[in-house]
Amino acid sequence: MVDIKDGDIVEIFFEGKLEDGTVFDKTDEKEPLKIKIGEGKILPAVENTIKEMKVGESKEVVVEPEDAFGPYIDELVADIPRSAINPDLKLELGMVLIIKLPTGKRYPARVIDIRDDSVKIDLNHPLAGKRLIFLITLVKVEKGKQS
After folding, report:
1. End-to-end Cα separation, the chain, in angstroms
2. What are the tens digits of pLDDT across the range 52-104?
3. Are 120 and 111 in contact (CB under 8 A)?
4. Cβ atoms of residues 99 and 123 within 8 Å
5. What is the C-alpha separation between 75 and 64, in angstroms, rounded?
6. Which listed residue, 13, 55, 104, 114, has the most CB atoms within 10 A of its CB?
7. Which domain holds residue 23?
8. Would 42 be classed as within a structural domain?
9. Same domain (yes/no): 13, 64
10. What is the pTM of this model?
11. 99 with 132, same domain?
12. Among candidates 47, 48, 8, 15, which has minimal Cα distance to 32?
């Protein structure tokens, strides 16, 4: 077994799905995903699972909402007046708007309802509050430069 550490580069195939079987992300069937371990580019629970794997091994890991994108927060759903949105913008359910707060910070917000005088937006991550299931296959490990 290869001892996988931070700084190592791994190649994986993966499929991420919800409990109802809906696939929300997956690698191309022919092109594995390259990840440098320890960079924080993937969920810690997934990274920790990869560290325990052998090349050629497949594992399923279930990631609870609190270890993924957090709980769904009702307070992050808001109505904004239509007048606050560019009138030339053709609104559609599910589209993502970039909302600029008075602080200057910008956040993506999904349109979840459209009315004549207002638009309901959701600032939660699309996977917030959801239990995620990943099927991971470790294809290759390239040892990184250890300090």
Report:
1. 22
2. 999 999 999 999 999 999 999 999 999 999 998 888 999 999 999 998 888 99
3. yes
4. yes
5. 21
6. 13
7. 9-69+128-142
8. yes
9. yes
10. 0.81
11. no
12. 15
